Amino acid sequence: MRARSHCAALFLLLAALAGGNLPSAAAGRPDPNCTGKHVFIGVRGSGEHSGFGDTIGAVKDRLQRTASGFTGFEAVDYVAVDVINPGNWIMYDASYKQGVEQLTNALYLKNYQCVNNTYVIAGYSQGADVVAGTLNSLWESNSSVDRDIFAHIHAVALLGDPRYNSKDVSVAAVSHKYGVPILAVLPSDHGGVRPVLPKALAAKVRSWCMPKDPVCDLDPATAAACATVSPSCAARLAAQTARHLAYRITGYTTRAADWLAHTDSPYVGDWHGMLLQDKKLVYPVDVHYIGGQLGEKVATVDYAALGCSGQWFLTQVSAHAIVVHEEITKNSHCIPEVDITLTPVGQGVLDYKVSTPVSATGQLHRR
């Protein structure tokens, strides 16, 4: 969100929407025998009117420096209208819709060029709203083409999502939440807190909100001031915007890039297994592993037969295994905290081992 003149943005928005100059999918049928590309697609934030923008540009730059396998880097071209003025929400909704259309068309075009393409996508601020909206639309669609494109999206990174939902399992660990996302306060056709993503979506998504970022973590006083369009609201948002612009310098873009680069992780996915504890107690376990960096929440776990559930935090990483720290958050009669070693032993199989204070072993199988 950056304070700029809105006239040029409005002109471009009206021209794009009225002129119908969005790129259309190539005619004909996709080639099923093509050699697919691994493509990064970035969607910039509000007030960034060209290319990837600073924040998504930093994600792209890190991928280009550190990741292998990417054969394309593309920015979605849309207005990304400025929204520091709360009176701009009609323009914001139109800009959001154009962004969804542009991103969808880009994916359609790539799919028609080659059905074997795979994608990772990142969005910042308004771009995060666009990316999440597009992903949800593809997931809910009955079109076989839409569902096929969805299946070829390997991972999604959202930064500063204006509809950020801190209760969603896709979010990165943030220990201190302060407020609400801005679209839960300001009027918008598709506003409000983003609904919790279904597992099929959440497994692909990682979302970061920097504490006290006014776009995704609006403080209560500003939320109250922005309940109606007012000069006080605009002044508060302008004063707090620096926090929203700091995702690159605070390392969040690095985390997002590393998440996107490790989508082929042997640990990411939904898992089920049977465990043997102290050579006498047998019970099932279900894990939803979304991945992340050291110290972050990387998974949720459910021991249904024991009536316990909790979360895993990544504590150690080696070439052959990882260690996660389990914290039980439901039903404290289970051991509240243990360290678990997970070791890949085959395609879609993980060895599970706890040594202390009890012995528990088993295998997890990817669903």
Percent of residues in helices: 25-40%
Rough outline: globular
Number of strands: 13
In angstroms, what is the radius of gyration? 22 Å
Strand order of the largest sheet: 6-7-8-9-10-11-12-13
The secondary structure category is alpha/beta
Portion of residues in beta strands equals: 25-35%
Which stretches of 5+ consecutive residues score pLDDT under 50? 1-27
- What is the ordering of alpha helices and beta strands? HEHEHEHHEHEHHHEEEEEEEE
User: How many DSSP H or I helices?
Assistant: 9
Main beta sheet = 8 strands, antiparallel, barrel
Mean pLDDT: 83
Give the N-to-C terminal Cα separation: 40 Å
What labels would you give this structure?
30% helix; 5-stranded parallel sheet; alpha/beta; 9 helices; 367 residues
Describe this structure in words.
The protein has 367 residues and is of the alpha/beta class. 30% of the residues lie in helices and 26% in strands. It has helices at 7-19, 53-66, 89-113, 126-140, 144-151, 199-202, 220-225, 231-244, 252-261, and strands at 38-43, 72-75, 118-124, 153-159, 205-208, 269-277, 281-289, 297-303, 308-317, 322-330, 337-346, 349-354, 360-366. Strands 6-7-8-9-10-11-12-13 form an 8-stranded antiparallel barrel. It has a 5-stranded parallel β-sheet with strand order 2-1-3-4-5. Residues 1-27 have low confidence and may be disordered.
Helix/strand layout:
Blueprint: H1 7-19, E1 38-43, H2 53-66, E2 72-75, H3 89-113, E3 118-124, H4 126-140, H5 144-151, E4 153-159, H6 199-202, E5 205-208, H7 220-225, H8 231-244, H9 252-261, E6 269-277, E7 281-289, E8 297-303, E9 308-317, E10 322-330, E11 337-346, E12 349-354, E13 360-366
Parallel strand pairs: 1-2, 1-3, 3-4, 4-5
Antiparallel strand pairs: 6-7, 6-13, 7-8, 8-9, 9-10, 10-11, 11-12, 12-13
